[in-house]
Amino acid sequence: MAQSEFELIARYFSRLGADRMDVRISVGDDGAVVMPPPSRELVLVTDTLVEGAHFPVGSPAASIGHRAFAVNLSDIAAMGAEPAWALLALTIPRYDEAWLAQFSRAAGDLCRKHGVLLVGGDTTRGPLTITVTLAGIVPVGVALERKGGQAGDAIFVTGSPGDSAAGLALEQGRLHVADAMSAQILRDRFLFPTPRSEIGVALRGMASACIDVSDGLGGDLEKLCAASGCGAEVDAAALPVSEALSGAVGRELAREYALTGGDDYELLFTVPLARLGAMNNAVARGLGPVTRIGSLVAGGGVRVFARGGVMQFSGAGFDHFAR
Ligand code: ADP
Ligand code: MG
Question: How many domains does the chain have?
Fold first, then answer.
């Protein structure tokens, strides 16, 4: 890498995120040295975004910077860990200062909000591809897993799933929404998803199983069910669809977006009935937007109950009114 390019990287990536006292050596050496607290476990996650596959070609640099870290923060949250240190492997077609400034500012804003410091990375030239690796801290033995849910447990989801998939459809011109305000809200839900770090940490000792919704609520619930060895029943009327989404596409289609969309980066988790009181207290104390949508049941598979029938989830989507 040429010297000027290195200076560019140093300018945009050497102090990105929160100040952390537990980082001894950071960007600028051959490796980063961090000091995990004693008797804690580290949770390690990584996710890659490829232009044209994970975001539309020509997406705003700020959105790409935000999402690259948000998707990893969401995985850390789903494990019930506190995000701490990040690495960034950045492949860019050219050194575009304005692009780098917007990308790094948005990434930095999100990292600061979540207590994360970027401690190293790699920068190469090539088709736009961003890989973030993130480490989180959790007390020994309490990390949340996809397994652990049991028949009878209540199923909850954060936020309003489906918005992001509609936002992406708007970005790609596959969906048209008359109301400009709703359209902007939905677009922003795709471009700038909200990782649920605080909720993930609060769910330790409370949730029996947890997964983050990246591929669509129905499919990800199916994964949680498979890992937990049970099935799920979801009440379609309980799905927390946003006003922006149901206003834009109608209630029926909004539910379909919520169940089969994707890129939500919400948490989907289960709570044993014995801990529902604690869960409701946490909500009353301001845990954040969580909604009960159904229950785990014996058996397998995901069924959604709606007025007029039952939808059975099957791999790619839902078969309407399968009995
Ligand atoms: P080396 O060739 O020894 O790997 P690099 O030139 O790749 O050195 O990186 C120099 C320093 O800059 C390292 O500390 C590396 O972690 C950091 N770095 C490079 N690119 C990035 C990036 N995109 N984000 C954060 N740190 C980076
Ligand atoms: Mg390198």
Answer: 2
